[in-house]
Amino acid sequence: MSRWPLLAALGVAALTAALVYARRPVEAPSVAAQAALVMPTTARVAHGDAARDDAVAAMAPRAVPRGASSPSALRVQFEQAPDLFAYAQSIRSRAEAGEPEAIWLLSRVYDYCANYSSAPVDYAADTRAIEAMKLRTSAAMAGARQRVSDRCARFSPDDGLNYQLVFFKQVEAAQAGSLPAEAALLAGGKPLEKTEEYRTNLVDRVLRSKDPEAYSALAPGMGIASTGRRGSASRVAGTQFAELAWQLAACQLGQDCSQQGSLMTSYCANGGICSQDPTQDFAGFVYDAAIPRQGAEVVDEMVDSLVGEKRTVQ
Fold this sequence. Notes:
Elements: H1 6-10, H2 15-22, H3 31-36, H4 73-80, H5 84-96, H6 100-118, H7 120-133, H8 138-151, H9 163-176, H10 179-187, H11 196-209, H12 212-218, H13 240-252, H14 262-271, H15 282-289, H16 293-307
């Protein structure tokens, strides 16, 4: 929900998705959804199907570049779990206990599944309509949307997954100590603190952490939205290329930027930003479709500057 500033940078039309969604009005959050914003997580055990914390099997971490830290087991599970409802249930007690990583990843589940869960029947109908259009990206977009449908299948409108809930969980995670959540709030224009000093300090903490999730979460706020900002944030900021550079740096540091990963799936499923090459990862897609040849070296230098500093504990 926080990544759409990058759509302009990618320069790929999202008209298909816009036309499909324009016919469905945005509904106000239900009473249950609004109540969820102030209820503890235990009040939202949906469908009476609470799972134990070991319900989702641990998976082997992906290989990451030399010098980057391996993703946590919870992050790997988020990317690979075939059933995100079960995954959310499996980390719920850890979130209730105040674990920052668990709360942050719950917010990611809610973000990933929100469009589907708000109207599963309509979502499926829209997917079929997109596939039937037979446009260049129809097959890729339909495939991404089907991937979302499969992984989010057990969520329903009663779960109230919407922007408000995602925002609430991000605030909760940030206050508990999650750096990616803090970065996401800043990128979304609602930082924990609104001073320039806080912003500069947060960008520095993200840089020092070398946390790919924090880089990725911060990326939308480092593009055009940060034009004219002073301090350390201005080192790689203020342009569409800068936003891309932060996300590409996240990929280098170990973020799942594969064709099947949540990043590319969400771009394609929600905005029609899809690669026609099923083997192309995010970096390949960006350099192929979004960055002119003359700009590639500039972006490379930006990425190098973002990943070149030594990793420190935040």
